[in-house]
């Protein structure tokens, strides 16, 4: 299927690895000129070189901390008018005792996973509306459907973004600007392996034992491939997806047990 986005410009944050990199790669394969963003220049440039070599697409980089005003300004100076915006972040830290979280801890989580995506949407939405084309995809988490233990900061911040998007997406769609969220389950990213390592250490088992246990308990019997997220992102960015907005698409191999 030709997704109809060749020659478009896509901005992808937190894209040096994991889901962000996968989304940038899938967009580049469709002929999108991508600008990828991350904090660390070396890995970011490595990702850009690999994506360009694999796809032949134009790939630019901006090394910036997008949680800061200055970082976002640098990104938007390099790419003020994207046709496609993919909001991604590493997410707040794990933790299970909200009694220990002070205001600064909460604000940091909100800045990372709620306010930064909102500020990027604010900056690019009107231009998309004027051009009569825009696709915004937020990488959130399956925690907005079923809160995850030990991830209270993420549960709260990402759900806040989801609520905001739910209203705005119904206003922008008449201008051919859609806003949707991708909700990943357990996928083979660096973050997953760090979490497995922490769980193994806490339980006195090996990472391999924890990995096998989690896969056995999963309906798919495996972890997700970040490429699956990337391709879902590319579809939501396509011309064919113009009638899909305000949705929360689970990419979790059936882990969420609900009917709706």
Summarize this, please?
By secondary structure, the protein is of the alpha/beta class. It has helices at about 20-30, 40-55, 70-80, 105-130, 150-170, 190-205, 205-215, 225-235; strands at about 10, 35-40, 60-65, 85, 135-140, 175-185, 250.
Mean pLDDT over all positions: 92
Helix content: 40-55%
Number of helices: 8
For the biggest β-sheet, the strand order reads 3-2-1-4-5-6-7
Our measurement of the CA-to-CA distance between the termini, rounded to an integer number of angstroms, reads 28 Å
Report the oligomer: single chain
Q: Mind explaining what this structure looks like?
A:
The chain is 47% helix and 14% strand. It has 260 residues and is an alpha/beta fold. Helix 4 (103-131) packs parallel to helix 5 (152-172). A seven-stranded parallel beta sheet has the order 3-2-1-4-5-6-7, with helices on both faces. The protein has helices spanning 18-29, 41-55, 69-78, 103-131, 152-172, 190-203, 207-216, 226-236; strands at 9-12, 33-38, 59-63, 84-87, 134-139, 177-184, 248-251. The mean pLDDT is 92. The protein starts with 8 loop residues before the first strand and ends in a 9-residue tail after the last strand. It is built from eight helices and seven strands; from the N terminus they run βαβαβαβαβαβαααβ. The chain is globular, with a radius of gyration of 18 Å.
């Amino acid at each position: 299927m030709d997704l109809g986005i060749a020659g478009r410009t896509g901005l992808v944050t937190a894209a040096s690895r994991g889901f962000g990199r996968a989304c940038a790669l899938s967009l580049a394969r469709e002929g999108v000129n991508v600008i990828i963003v991350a904090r660390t220049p070396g890995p970011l440039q490595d990702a850009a070189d690999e994506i360009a070599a694999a796809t032949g697409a134009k790939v630019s980089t901006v090394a910036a901390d997008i949680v800061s005003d200055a970082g976002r300004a640098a990104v938007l100076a390099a790419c003020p008018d994207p046709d496609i915006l993919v909001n991604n972040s590493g997410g707040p830290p794990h933790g299970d005792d909200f009694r220990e979280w002070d205001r600064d801890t909460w604000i940091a989580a909100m800045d990372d996973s709620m306010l930064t995506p909102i500020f990027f949407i604010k900056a690019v939405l009107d231009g998309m509306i004027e051009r009569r084309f825009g696709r915004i995809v937020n990488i959130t988490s399956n925690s907005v459907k079923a809160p995850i233990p030990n991830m209270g900061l993420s549960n709260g911040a990402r759900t806040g973004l989801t609520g905001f998007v739910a209203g705005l997406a119904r206003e922008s769609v008449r201008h051919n600007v859609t806003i949707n969220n991708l909700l990943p389950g357990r996928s083979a990213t660096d973050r997953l392996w760090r979490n497995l390592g922490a769980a193994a250490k806490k339980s006195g088992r090996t990472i391999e034992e924890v990995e096998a246990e989690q896969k056995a308990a999963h309906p798919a019997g495996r972890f997700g491939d970040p490429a699956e997220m990337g391709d879902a992102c590319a579809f939501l960015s396509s011309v064919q997806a113009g009638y899909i907005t305000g949705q929360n698409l689970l990419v979790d191999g059936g882990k969420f047990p609900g009917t709706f």
